[in-house]
Design goal:
Number of domains of chain A: 3
Number of strands of chain B: 3
Helix content of chain A: 25-40%
Helix content of chain B: 25-40%
Oligomer: heterodimer
Largest sheet of chain A: 9 strands, mixed
Shape of chain B: flat
Distance between the termini of chain B: 40 Å
Structural class of chain A: alpha+beta
Shape of chain A: elongated
Order of helices and strands of chain B: HHEHEE
Low-confidence stretches of chain B: none
């Protein structure tokens, strides 16, 4: 819900995601798909639409689409049809894109959103279909010319369409991260929006709660999850303003301007699009074997939802912590390695708060972590064995993140061992109490809040190394006096 | 189904075929005749018959996911009217 001047509005959002399929060769040709190759070096005569060339479907791309459909709990259509979507653009040499229209390979499914409060919400998937990517046009190389690179032309895409079930920019972010986590767990797409291997268009409309759907606009060309969330928010507020001013929302395509954080209408085409879809005469319908689909289903890896459930059940993590860790394959693997033989909640906290926080500040991912899971595990052991205190552990960790050194050697080198010798601590406690006679008197006359102050003074005197439990115990005894 | 000049103009535009104004009348007539001839098929009873996507009865052949083609830039660019640094070059298509 968003509050306007005249009451609240509901935002309704549906997403169309284009995810590049991970495969060696293209959807209908034997040219390579490597990202960042020299222009036009990964182009076959099929991709460049030379006369007489015939498309032959890549079996692995079909497998990738079916696996993705199964992971989305979707129905797999054993018969699907490739059609031609006709339009003219220089980076589309044949004058049509081979896509699927009336009979997609994957039908209705769903994605479960893990909400921050630990609850879940299902978003319906309308369909997933296979199609070709277009080439790339470079408009900024020359004032009067466009440069065309066909390396991307013909690479397989999965278009994944959701029902208009999303209700906020926040849900859009959660949906895309979850979809990306599923694609990465499957290895069917790397889901990298910055590199353009995952692209997303959003259909946005607003309505009064309970009213019929409003007129939608489509937002195109957004290259990060954060920007898409911004674009959806901006667009919803803009539409509410239009409606509240007594105007009408126009059905149109809008582009997001990331510098301004706004959307603006795309220059309208002289002629409305008319794609004139028809079945591609070069490709008979694709028929899948039910047994083959079943086999793929059995071979699916553990997916984020199952992983989350396992983390809750086996490690006793909270639903939101489990969803967070399970949502990223690398974080999940790191956590499991750290938790091996240790208290899982402690391990989860170290990974989520200290490790990911520190990596984030350094702009690193888990894969680039200077601290290995084994190393972090040894640090946790040092605390649980009583060798160092939790406070010192954070200091040691800060050093580990900088140098990658082993926690044991840092503790040894800097003499950070926890002092559990009652005699030594007692000396420190006595020294503090002798020095702070005023505060001791205040404490004894009822200002019990001062207890924390005394603890702090003793910890400072022992450079943070005193065993906190012993310090508490001795202080209580002596102050009771 | 008869095509009028407006419909023909639109079809020509969609297909990016230039048709001079003076040719529209005659072409519309010819195309209408072709459509009328194809429409004879409507007389066939197709109730309960699934639409046919292709007259070929074969199963769709599939290829293995292997790189077997590409890496032939010179040949690909050979017939292009204009190229620069390995790119196809066309008149600017955005403002």
């Amino acid at each position: 819900m968003i509050e306007g001047r005249t009451g609240s509005f509901e935002i309704v959002i549906g997403l169309e995601v284009h995810a590049q399929v991970i495969s060696r060769a293209k959807l209908f040709s034997g040219a390579a798909t490597r990202f960042g190759a020299e222009p036009n070096t990964e182009v076959s005569p099929i991709d460049a639409a030379f006369p007489g060339m015939l498309p032959v479907l890549n079996k692995f791309c079909v497998e990738q689409a079916v696996k993705t459909g199964l992971a989305l709990e979707a129905e797999i259509n054993l018969e699907s049809v490739f059609e031609r979507k006709n339009y003219f653009y220089p980076d589309l040499p044949p004058g049509y894109q081979i896509s699927q229209y009336q009979n997609p390979i994957v039908g209705g499914g769903r994605i479960i959103l893990d909400m921050p409060d630990g609850s879940s919400r299902a978003i319906r998937i309308t369909r997933l279909h296979l199609e070709q990517d277009a080439g790339k046009s470079l408009h900024d190389q020359d004032p009067r010319l466009t440069f065309v690179d066909l390396n991307r032309a013909g690479v397989a895409l999965m278009e994944i369409v959701s029902e208009p079930d999303l209700r906020s920019a926040e849900e859009v972010g959660i949906y895309l991260r979850k979809l990306r986590a599923i694609l990465r767990a499957l290895g069917t797409s790397n889901g990298n929006m910055e590199e353009g291997s995952m692209r997303c268009d959003a259909n946005v409309s607003v309505r009064r709660p309970g009213a019929a759907l409003g007129t939608r606009t489509e937002i195109k060309n957004v290259n990060s999850i954060r920007f898409l969330m911004q674009a959806v928010d901006y667009e919803a507020r803009r539409q509410i303003e239009v409606v509240e001013d007594g105007g009408r929302v126009l059905q149109e395509t809008r582009l997001f301007d990331s510098a301004r954080g706004t959307t603006r209408p795309m220059r309208s085409k002289e002629e409305a699009h008319d794609y004139r879809y028809f079945p591609d005469p070069d490709l008979v319908p694709l028929v899948l074997d039910r047994e083959w689909v079943e086999e793929l289903k059995r071979s699916l890896p553990e997916l984020p939802d199952a992983k989350k459930a396992r983390f809750v059940k086996n490690y006793g993590l909270s639903s939101s912590d489990a969803a967070f860790l399970a949502g990223d394959g690398a974080s999940a693997a790191y956590f499991e390695a750290t938790a091996q033989g240790r208290e899982a909640k402690t391990a989860a906290n170290w990974v989520m708060v200290e490790l990911l926080g520190a990596l984030n500040r350094k702009g690193l991912g888990i894969a680039g972590s200077p601290v290995s899971a084994e190393s972090l595990g040894r640090l946790i052991d040092l605390v649980s064995e009583g060798t160092i205190s939790g406070r010192i552990a954070k200091e040691v960790f800060a050093e580990m993140i900088e140098t990658g050194a082993d926690p044991g050697s840092i503790v040894k080198e800097k003499g950070l061992f926890q002092v559990s010798d009652a005699g030594v601590i007692e000396e420190a406690v006595d020294a503090v109490l002798r020095r702070e006679t005023d505060k001791v008197a205040q404490y004894r006359s009822g200002r019990e809040k001062l207890f924390g102050y005394f603890v702090g003074q003793v910890m400072r005197a022992t450079e943070g190394r005193a065993n906190p439990a012993l310090v508490n115990e001795l202080l209580r005894k002596k102050l009771a006096g | 189904m008869a095509l009028d000049k407006t419909a023909l103009r639109r079809v020509a535009l969609l297909a990016r075929i230039r048709v001079e104004e003076g040719e529209l009348e005659a072409l519309a007539g010819e195309l209408s005749q072709i459509l009328a001839w194809v429409e004879e098929l409507n007389e066939v009873e197709t109730e309960g018959v699934a639409p046919m996507a292709s007259p070929a009865v074969s199963r769709l052949p599939l290829r293995e996911d292997k790189v077997t083609d590409g890496d032939c830039r010179e040949a690909m660019l050979l017939n292009a009217p204009k190229t620069t640094r390995g790119f196809f070059v066309v008149p600017k298509v955005v403002e």
